[in-house]
Specification:
Elements lengths: L3 E3 L7 E3 L3 E4 L4 E4 L12 E4 L2 E4 L16 E3 L4 E3 L11 E3 L4 E3 L4 E5 L5 H13 L16 H6 L1 E4 L2 H46 L7 E3 L7 E3 L3 E4 L4 E3 L13 E4 L2 E4 L17 E3 L4 E3 L13 E3 L4 E3 L4 E5 L5 H13 L16 H4 L3 E4 L2 H44 L16 H12 L6 H15 L8 E3 L2 E3 L3 H10 L3 E4 L5 E4 L3 H7 L1 H18 L4 H19 L7 H11 L9 H14 L11 E2 L6
Parallel strand pairs: 25-29
Antiparallel strand pairs: 1-2, 3-12, 4-11, 5-6, 7-10, 8-9, 8-11, 13-14, 15-24, 16-23, 17-18, 19-22, 20-21, 20-23, 25-26, 27-28
Helix pairs in contact: 1-6, 3-4, 3-6, 6-14, 7-8, 7-9, 7-11, 8-11, 8-12, 12-13, 12-14
């Protein structure tokens, strides 16, 4: 393990002894060159995904002209040094030439600094807004001079490049998993939208007689449903909080009415709430402004409690004996079909109640309204739960990514040199695994699957050939490795059912002889063992099988296989017994692997089918 020293920087802690520390101004300098007239160059922007080329046809707020924007060049860093506290991402690596806002700061790196490394370094600081406390003014901004005085760690340039290459690879793998989860979330969201739209426009009876609704974007509806303008069922609620006595502040956020802290200093809150509307439970709320620019936000919600909300929104109360929840779902369906965007007028492309309430809506019987609401609540709760679980997986993976960047950027972990790869004999790897399991080993399969995953993650045996056995990827020399461990008296192997082990007579010699290897690799092996430790042998076998199949896809050039592809390959092309667990069981295992970062890289040899002579 290399020597470490205190960096003297509060948010960094210890760094390798051979790393330097110097003011940021010696590592980068600001470059600004204005483009007087726009000639069709790519427009570049900072986003949570880094520096991106902006799609000018996608809508959103745009300047009247790009004249006066600044030139930026590939290989430099782009920073937002103002409003650091509220800007989602303040740093990015420029990957193509173009133009960007003159408010951003472009930095050219000196020969002592690698742009990729310092992009990760400042992303690390931006993840928890470390630099905010250094920005003393109201807008939480830094000047280039202030940034230049900040002490910064400086690894040797070769190590910067090595860290960058490693993190590029690992982050690409992580981002691929996140992207897959995000696609699954979007598919669930689309399914939820279709369920709502189908129920509120077609009803729940598939055999009911239908008729043309007369509404272009709806098509047919049940023949007995009544069609009227919205104002037939709802009136506008206008009840100002004139005396300022109401303090339960509500807001429309992502299609839900939520509470906000009226005493909060954050966000764009007014000095007075006297102009806000007082609303009641079951009022339907519509955000009818900025219809031209914002085509992504959800604009409908239903109040669950008494409170106040901005008078910029339309508040509607039922004036007939109807179920407001049904009409909320119906208007939500209109919203996701982008019906409202053709209705706006004026500078801000807005609507008032008189204009909005001319929308044609449908009235099922009150019994049908209640049944549709009950059905949608149950279905949407199921879908929302699945979405929440996938979002939690993404959150866990993103936290792992942040910790990975911190550990390598600050030198807490060292990237193994490709010129110093240590090939670990499989018997030794198995012994290292047994060391980590201790008394928690649940049998031979448990040990072998942990050894397999450790070999793949550490890259310790590139030519190892694994076969597709019933229990997962299998090395046919496993019994020989266990005999070697037992013979060397590192561990005593007890061949029962299940197999167990205990420390052998020469365990201390084993620890002493391989202490450097243990120090270097035990943390990675421990992560794998800790993941498998609570599992039964069958569960550990599923993990290793999915990992092997995923790795095979990557070896074959399919770098981002879908969950369905992985599960289908396991259940149809591994061994017959793999078709027995329900596909949801395989999916659950795969979700847990992704959340724990147990993701392959396409390393080693493709698995082979189990040969008949071994049956």
């Amino acid at each position: 393990m290399r020597e470490m020293k205190d960096s003297g920087i509060e948010w960094i802690g210890t760094i390798p002894d051979n790393w330097d520390i110097m003011p940021n101004k010696y590592l980068m300098w600001k470059k600004k060159r204005i483009c007087p007239v726009y000639n069709g160059e790519d427009i570049i922007s900072l986003s949570m995904n880094g520096v991106i080329v902006r799609d000018l046809d996608a809508g959103g707020k745009m300047p009247t002209s790009f004249d006066g924007y600044q030139y930026i060049e590939s290989g430099n860093l782009l920073m937002c040094l103002f409003d650091i506290d509220v800007t989602p991402r303040c740093i990015g690596l420029i990957k193509c030439n173009g133009l960007t806002s003159p408010a951003y700061s472009q930095f050219v790196l000196t020969s002592r600094a690698n742009a990729g490394y310092y992009n990760y370094y400042y992303t690390m600081l931006d993840n928890d807004k470390t630099l905010v406390h250094l920005a003393k003014n109201l807008r939480h901004s830094l000047t280039e001079e202030q940034l230049g005085t900040i002490s910064t760690i400086v690894p040797p340039i070769a190590e910067q490049i090595k860290i960058t290459d490693y993190l590029d690879k690992k982050c690409e793998e992580i981002n691929s998993v996140v992207a897959q989860l995000q696609e699954e979330i979007e598919a669930l969201e689309e399914y939820k939208r279709s369920v709502i739209t189908e129920a509120v426009t077609k009803g729940l009876d598939p055999d009911v007689e239908m008729r043309d609704s007369g509404v272009q974007w709806i098509g047919e509806i049940p023949a007995h449903w009544i069609t009227h303008p919205l104002y037939f069922y709802f009136g506008e609620r206008k009840n100002k909080n004139a005396l300022g006595l109401e303090t339960n502040l509500l807001s429309l956020s992502y299609g839900k009415i939520i509470r906000k802290d009226i005493n909060s200093n954050g966000g764009l809150l007014p000095e007075s709430f006297n102009t806000y509307n007082i609303i009641e439970k079951d009022d339907i709320i519509i955000r009818p402004t900025d219809l031209q620019n914002d085509k992504r936000s959800l604009r409908t919600g239903i109040a669950r409690e008494h409170g106040i909300i901005t008078s910029a929104y339309i508040a509607m109360k039922a004036i007939k004996a109807v179920n407001p929840e049904y009409f909320h779902y119906l208007l939500h369906a209109y919203d996701v079909m982008k019906v409202f965007y053709n209705m706006g007028n004026g500078v801000r492309q807005g609507l008032n109640f008189s204009e909005f309430s001319r929308l044609m809506v449908f009235e099922p019987t009150i019994e049908e309204q209640n049944a549709i609401v009950a059905y949608l609540k149950e279905k949407c709760d199921e879908i929302d739960l699945a979405i929440a679980e996938k979002k939690q997986q993404i959150e866990t993976i993103e936290e792992y990514k942040k910790s990975l960047i911190f550990e390598y950027v600050t030198g807490k972990k060292e990237v193994a040199s490709t010129l110093q790869v240590v090939t670990i004999h499989p018997a030794l790897m198995l012994a290292l695994v047994l060391r980590e399991f201790g008394d928690d080993l649940k049998g031979k399969i448990h040990a072998q699957k942990a050894a397999y995953l450790s070999e793949m993650v550490l890259g310790s045996r590139p030519n190892a050939q694994y076969y597709r056995y019933e229990q997962g990827p299998y090395d046919e020399e496993l019994d020989n490795y266990l005999k070697q461990i037992h013979k060397r008296q590192w561990f005593t192997i007890h061949n029962g059912n299940p197999m167990t082990c205990s420390k052998g007579k020469k365990y201390s010699e084993f620890e002493e002889k391989y202490k450097d290897l243990i120090s270097k690799y035990s943390s990675e092996i421990k992560k794998i063992v800790d993941f498998l430790r609570p599992m039964r042998s069958s569960q550990a076998g599923r993990v290793a099988t999915l990992y092997a199949v995923w790795n095979d896809f990557m070896i074959d050039g399919i770098t981002n296989p879908t969950d369905s592809q992985l599960i289908d390959e396991v259940t149809t092309n591994w061994t017959p017994n793999k078709s027995n667990p329900d596909k949801s069981t395989w999916q659950d295992t795969l979700n847990k692997m992704k959340a724990a970062g147990i993701v392959p890289t396409g390393y080693g040899l493709h698995t082979k089918a189990k040969e008949m002579r071994h049956i």
